Amino acid sequence: MEEELIAGKHSVAEALRAGRSINKIWIAEGTQQKQMQPILTEAKNRGVVVQTADKRKLDTLVPGIQHQGVVAQAAPYVYAEVEDLLAAAAAKDEDPFLLILDEIEDPHNLGSILRTADCTGVHGVIIPKRRSAQVNATVSKTSAGAAEYVPVARVTNLAQTMEKLKESGVWIAGTDVRAEGEIYETDVFKGPVALVIGNEGEGMGRLVREKCDVLIKLPMQGRINSLNASVAAGVVMYEVLRQRSGRK
């Protein structure tokens, strides 16, 4: 089974704390010990091998990623099942709060969405197996370690998955710039809900859009009529949190 790499102080530290199976950690030579102390302490407690290496080796291991002087070699990321996400909500005695990402292709967007999802209490994220960013080192780094805590399920067919969620009592709310209702005008967020975030350029696909119970949009006052996918997702996630917490 292939191994994966995790880069960055927060990502590696959270992977250790979350119990991710880690085989080895490389720390760049010359890195201040104080900055890496939480990682070194956790690695020692877990019995994980820590080695020093030339920074250029780390650059080669995770090209294009700001690794901050630390890279971990870990077991492959384990995706969840959709049933696991519903079970996570039930275990907390909460209505399901899920995200469905319709072909989000930029791993930076996926990482940012996972970070906000963790902050807002999302029980899990659903992505398609094809034409979608997968959880990798870039996603982990961008999520600041949240990828270790927010379960992600991969499915073959989003439309079929949405139907099954409906059968479980989950309402599907799609974000669409052409929608008539705004996110502040709906009360669907207070119950079991799955938010659909569309592709960065094209939005939601036709079949996915048709499967939504309700379509909502963000109010726009300027000349630009759309937001970055991860920013839009964050705004809607916090509106769900606001409504569920009873804040005005």
From TrEMBL:
Domain RNA 2-O ribose methyltransferase substrate binding as annotated: residue spans: 5-80
SUPFAM superfamilies recorded: alpha/beta knot (SSF75217), L30e-like (SSF55315)
Record's keyword terms, sorted: Methyltransferase, Transferase
Top-level taxon of the source organism: Bacteria
Coiled coil: none
Family: Belongs to the class IV-like SAM-binding methyltransferase superfamily. RNA methyltransferase TrmH family.
Protein name: 23S rRNA (Guanosine(2251)-2'-O)-methyltransferase RlmB
Gene name, Swiss-Prot/TrEMBL: rlmB
